[in-house]
Structures are given as C-alpha cells and as structure tokens.
Automatic annotation (TrEMBL), chain A:
This is Carbohydrate ABC transporter permease. It comes from Bradyrhizobium frederickii. It is a multi-pass membrane protein. Residues 72-262 form the ABC transmembrane type-1 domain. CDD domains: TM_PBP2 (cd06261). It comes from the Bacteria. Keywords: Cell membrane, Membrane, Transmembrane, Transmembrane helix, Transport.
TrEMBL record, chain B:
Transmembrane segments: none annotated. Residues 1-22 form the signal peptide. Keywords: Periplasm, Signal. It is found in: Periplasm. Gene3D superfamilies: Periplasmic binding protein-like II (3.40.190.10). The keyword Signal applies. Belongs to the bacterial solute-binding protein 1 family. SUPFAM superfamilies: Periplasmic binding protein-like II. This is Sugar ABC transporter substrate-binding protein. It comes from Bradyrhizobium frederickii. InterPro entries: Bact_solute-bd_prot1, SBP.
Length: 276, 437
C-alpha cells in the first residue's frame, strides 16, 4: 500500500536528502574552497569556511609549473579510448550471454569477475616486463589497453544485467507483428537498452578517469594523465595543500561537469529496468 | 567500415610514433619537495648551457615514486635517466648493480667538499653512487616565547629528562597548546624514523651482531614507554595519524611548544609567509640520555643514474650541475641564500652570507655531524643506517613494527604487547629472509 505523502513527510525527507547530499559533497566542496586559500590559511586551526582572503594564485602557480592541458588531453584519450573499446567488446559479449545463454555462461561470468579480485599490484612486474618488451611503457595506447582490460569485467556484468531485464515477450510480440531482426534491433531493443548503455559508459568513463594505479606506474611523461598531475603535488616534506587542492579541482572538473549534465541518464540507467 | 579501420590504425600509429630527435632527452624522476621544485624551475639555466640536452620531469609523491622507480630499475625498464633516491636505497641498489657509479662529475666538482657523513651514506666501497642534492638530520625546534613565559631555558644539548619535564610544563590543553609534537603515523619513514633514532639515544638497536631482533630488551621498552607516556600527557590529540606535514601544520599554527623533526623544517617554520610563529623559534640538538648518541637521524635526497639508462653522459652532466657549488650560487642569486639546498657541502656552512640568513645553519651541521650511519648505535650492529637498517627487507619490517607502535600510541595496545608483536613479526621476517635460523 502506498503511503500518503503528507507535507511534513515531504519536508522531512527533502531536508534529509539535502543533508546527506551535502555530507557526501562536502569533501569536494572543502577541496574547492582550499584551492582558493593561501597556503597559510589552508591549514589554519580552526579552519575558516568562507571568510578568508580569496585568491587564485594557486591556479596560476599550478598552470605555470605543469602543463595541465597535456595531462587533460591524455586523460580524455585514455579514458575515452578504453571506454569505447570496452563497449565494443562488451556489447556483443553481454548480448550473447543474455539472449542465448549456455550452461557455461554463469561460470564465464564468474570467472570474469574473479579477475577483478586480484590486487593489481600482484601483476605489476609481469605487466611491466611485457610492456617493456613491446615498447608500450609511457604510451597512450598501452594505458588504453590496460584500463580497457581492467574495466571489461564490470562493463560486461553491467550490460549483461541490463540486457537480461529486457523481456523476451516484447521481442516475441514484435516478431508476431512481423518485425525483421533489423527492425527488432532498432525499434524495440535499442530504445530499451540505451539507458543501460549510457550509464555503463559513464561509469566506465569515471572509473577510467580516476584510475590511479596503472596510470601512475606505466606512464612517465608523454602519456601521463591527470592522476600523475595530482600526484606531482602531493609532498611528504612541505605543506602545499592549497596547490594540491587546486590541482585536484582542475583534475576532476571535466568529469564533474560531465557527470552533472548526464546525471539524469546515470540515475535512470542505474535504477530503471525495462519493465519497472 | 574501411575508413573507420584506417582511421583507427592511423591514430594508433600516431600514438605509438616516437619523434626522432638529434638531441638527448633526459627523463628525471623526483619528489615534490620545495628544493626539487626550485630545481625544476631552474632547468632552463642548465639547458641554456647544454643546448643539445632537453629535460623532462616526472614529479611524484615519495612512496609512489619509490614504487615506480623500483619497478623500473628492477625490470631494467629504462624509463628514467636520473633518479631521486634516498640514502636508504643507495647502498642496496649499488650492491645489486642497479646504479652507475659517478666517476665523471668534472674537475671542478670538488668531491672533498661534500659533508663526510653524507658522502659516506652515498658511497659503497669508496665509490660515489649518487650525488647528494640536499641532506638533513633531525633536531629540536621550540618556541622561545613559551619557554620564556614558563621560565625554562633550553640547553644546547638537552636530555630526554629535560624534554619530558618541559613538555609537561608547557602543555595547556585548554588553550590548545601542546608541550611536544612528534610523529605517530605508521611507516618506516614516518614514526619509525623518529622512534629508531630515539631508540639509538636510549642505547637500543634494531638487531644485534647476529641479526637477532632486539625489541625484547629493556632499552626498547624504556624508549617506547617514554614516548607513549609523553605523547599521552603532552601531545596533541590524534597524534597516531600525524606525520611530518601534520606536525608542521600544528607547529606553524602555534599549537606545539616543541617539535623534533627533520632539520629541513627549520626553513619552513622560520618563513613568515608560511608560519605564524616565524620569529619565535629556537633550535637545539636532538635529545640524549647521556649514552653518547643523540636521537637524530641522517637522510639525504640524492641524484643517481639507473643502470638501464642509455644517456649516462648527459645524465651525469645534469647531476654535476644540480649538486655543484655553482648551483647553490645560482639559487642564492635568484631566491636568496635562505633557499639554497642545505646539508651537502662544507663550503655552505663557511659562507657568511648563508650563516647570516639561516639561524638554523649551525645546528643543522652539528646534527648531521652527530649522526653516524656506519656506527649508529651505542652497542655494535651489523647494519648501516641511523633510522633504518639498509637491507631490502627493512621497508616491510619497519612499516609492520611502525603499525604496532602507532597502535600503542593510539592506546589500542599496551607498550608490552606492541613490543612483543614487533619482536615476533621481525623475527619471522628475518628468518624468512635467511638472516637468522
């Protein structure tokens, strides 16, 4: 039975939602605020929230010291490239497993997931040696390849669950109406699969953008993406919190904006199935 | 479809292609410390005189850099031409043949001018395997205003008894002032750097002559008991997660009356741009217990050439430039004498211009001189290194022991339990590595 939405309940849940939303967003907000402080104010105790001397000098310093656009371009190529290739492989794989499963399908799915259970550092040296032999160290194509492999199990799993939710009855109904396979694909399946595809793509893009183990270990300068850009501002001896925050804000800005504009798709894809 | 395929192949080829260059490109890996950032900024001065060399920097956080560089050097990946490494790595890597000995630093390099203790730390069998870029020890930094107010006078060579007593007297928790700030964050280069040095002053040692771990000795118990009690009574809250940077922030904000840490911090705490207490800081040698060893460590960041590099000649040219006397002069002319990399050359400590602007210079030198990596402890030991034992296994063991000691500081474990756990963990690792049976 549906509960009646009284005004009080709506207000309470709205406040609650905003509160938790703010709580989750707070670290990012704090980082952004810190990036506009001076180094002295960045570690002031008690910390100042909004009433401090706002400055953009950190951004100027960061831009002067390192080439942001070089790193950002690498991030775009690596994250975008690995996502695209992962989707190209995963769509047919998930499709076949969802619509014509065999008795081994479940095992294959579990085996794929099991590859994610090993910590990446366990295979660092073998991968490094292979990359060295093939001349892939510090190359964008090498990073695209490794990130694609790393995220492939998740992409296949996500797509598999989306495709599985598309009821076969709908396909049968379409066939009864005389739809050919091509028409069935374009007019029946694709519209139902698109939210799932979009959210998988976005999630994979975010994962690849933030991936810090392989990108740090397999790149030096030519292929270095934004993760190495951030890492270069973290210091064991010296307080550069404001500069580090500025670098981090610049690094997450593109993906944050992308997430903002596509959040409707993202939420829809994550919560809605074909029939719900 | 053909077009797409062509485009993909073309793009891949572009991504893979390495532009052919007549000039040498050096890839230099370094940490994000102030002095290294300054070196990066001055690179153009080097390339101006060496137009055939271009320099690419890879700056990473210390632990990331260590992992990155170790992987590359162990697999002979050849990604780097110059590495920034610590005194811990130099002897281990040199013995493994991973580093190129520096024999051609030039006639005007003046190796004899390098501080003897630092030079020892980067040499193996009399051969220089790395050139020190900046060196540091540890010392006491204290607030002269708070000491005066409490009627205390810091001796030049304080004992632990004095430090403990003063810390108690200077603590005013209601005002948010703490008598002493010390490292507590677990890690071989974090709390264990401090605690190993402190243990040396208490007559303790990591291993005896036969590599038997020594955490079950009364010396270690005295060290850890003093440390934990002192921090409970006079330390800041949450000290078990404080490292160098956290303590620097506390000290600069005026929350600590004393801080025992790296000498390189002296230039940060006396810089009015970064510190609220810049004009109220005094310095003293790290404390002792009268046994002949002070609780100070010895560390240097050095530039070295990995055996996998194919550009050793250009790399050595760069190293000679960055660690030369002329480089010091160059920094002084651009950023002032207070900002030159400290702790590597005798001549710097005889330079009146430097001594005038660096009130901490005398004590930095005295602290470096007081640490002996070849004879770090009161009783004899089989290892080299003051706040570490230069064996490959130490990173892992040191961090494991550091976790136990950090837990003791946090109060989730007693001192006895922490020492027992440290002893059995170290014994296990040393057995596994074949040092003991």
């Amino acid at each position: 039975m549906a509960r009646i939405a009284t005004t009080r309940r709506v207000v309470a849940s709205t406040i609650g939602a905003w509160f938790f939303g703010f709580l989750i967003f707070f670290p990012i907000l704090w980082m952004m605020l810190t990036s506009f402080k001076t180094e002295l104010e960045a570690f002031a105790i008690p910390p100042s929230f909004l009433f401090f001397h706002w400055t953009t000098e950190n951004y100027a310093t960061v831009q002067e010291r390192s080439d942001y656009f070089h790193h950002a371009m690498n991030s775009i190529i690596i994250a975008g490239g690995s996502t695209l290739i992962a989707l190209l492989i995963a769509i047919p794989a998930a499709w076949s497993m969802a619509f014509s499963p065999t008795k081994r399908t479940k095992d294959i799915l579990l085996w794929m997931l099991s590859t994610k259970m090993m910590p990446p550092v366990g295979v660092l040296v073998p991968i490094y040696l292979i990359y060295k032999s093939f001349g892939l160290l510090d190359s964008r194509i090498g990073l695209v390849f490794i990130l694609c492999l790393g995220n492939l199990p998740i992409v296949i799993w996500m797509l598999f669950t989306y495709f599985k939710e598309i009821p076969r009855d709908i396909l049968e109904a379409a066939r009864m109406d005389g739809a050919t396979i091509g028409r069935e694909l374009v007019y029946v399946l694709t519209p139902m699969a698109i939210p799932g595809l979009a959210s998988t793509m976005l999630l994979n893009l975010i994962l690849a953008w933030n991936e810090a183990f392989w990108t740090l270990n397999l790149s030096t300068s030519n292929a270095a993406p934004l993760t190495t850009f951030i890492a270069s501002y973290s210091s064991p001896e010296g307080l550069f919190w404001a500069k580090l925050s500025a670098a981090s804000t610049m690094a997450i800005a593109p993906i944050l904006v992308l997430g903002w504009f596509s959040q409707k798709q993202l939420v829809r894809g994550l919560t809605f199935g074909a029939v719900k | 479809m053909k077009h797409i395929l062509g485009a993909v192949c073309g793009a891949s080829a572009l991504l893979l292609a390495v532009p052919a260059m007549a000039e040498t490109t050096l890839t230099i890996a370094t940490v994000n410390n102030g002095d290294m950032i300054r070196m990066q900024g001055l690179t153009s001065e080097f390339t101006k005189n060496n137009p055939d060399i271009t320099v690419k920097w890879v700056t990473l956080e210390e632990n990331v850099l260590r992992q990155r560089v170790t992987t590359d050097i162990a697999t002979k990946g050849g990604q780097f031409d110059v590495l920034t490494i610590g005194t811990y790595e130099v002897p281990i890597w040199a013995k493994k043949g991973w580093l190129v000995p520096l024999a051609n630093l030039g006639s005007d390099y003046d190796v004899a001018d390098l501080l003897p203790k630092i030079k020892d730390a980067v040499s193996v069998d009399g051969k220089l395997y790395a050139a020190p870029f900046y060196g540091e020890s540890s010392m006491v930094m204290y607030r002269t205003d708070l000491f005066e107010k409490a009627g205390l006078k810091m001796p030049e060579k304080p004992t632990w008894d004095f430090v403990v007593d003063a810390a108690r007297k200077l603590t005013d928790k209601s005002a948010g002032t703490y008598g002493i700030c010390l490292r507590g964050k677990a890690g071989w280069g974090e709390n264990m750097a401090f605690l190993s040095a402190m243990a040396n002053s208490y007559g303790a040692r990591w291993f005896d002559e036969k590599w038997q771990p020594q955490f079950n000795t009364p010396e270690w118990k005295a060290t850890l008991t003093t440390y934990v009690n002192l921090m409970k009574e006079a330390g800041p809250p949450g000290a078990s997660s404080n490292g160098f940077n956290e303590n620097l922030a506390l000290f600069n904000a005026g929350k600590c009356a004393m801080w025992i840490d790296a000498t390189v911090a002296a230039s940060f705490v006396t810089n009015p741009k970064d510190s609220k207490v810049a004009d109220k800081v005094g310095f003293a040698l790290a404390p002792n217990t009268g046994l002949g060893k002070n609780a100070n460590w010895l560390w240097a960041w050095n530039l070295a050439i990995p055996a996998g590099s194919k550009k050793t000649e250009a790399a050595e040219k760069f190293i000679a430039w960055a660690t030369s006397k002329d480089y010091t002069k160059l920094v002084a002319s651009k950023d002032g004498w207070a900002n030159v990399p400290p702790g590597t050359r005798t001549s710097l400590y005889q330079n009146p211009d430097y001594l005038k602007v660096a009130p901490f210079a005398k004590l930095t030198l005295a602290s470096i001189d007081a640490a002996d990596p070849n004879k770090p402890t009161v009783k004899p030991v089989p290892y080299v290194g003051v706040q570490y034992a230069a064996i490959p296994e130490f990173q892992g063991i040191g961090t494991q022991v550091g976790q136990q000691f950090s837990a003791a500081l946090a109060g989730s474990m007693t001192v006895e339990a922490a020492l027992t756990a440290a002893q059995s963990a170290t014994e296990r690792e040393m057995k596994r590595a074949g040092y003991i049976k």
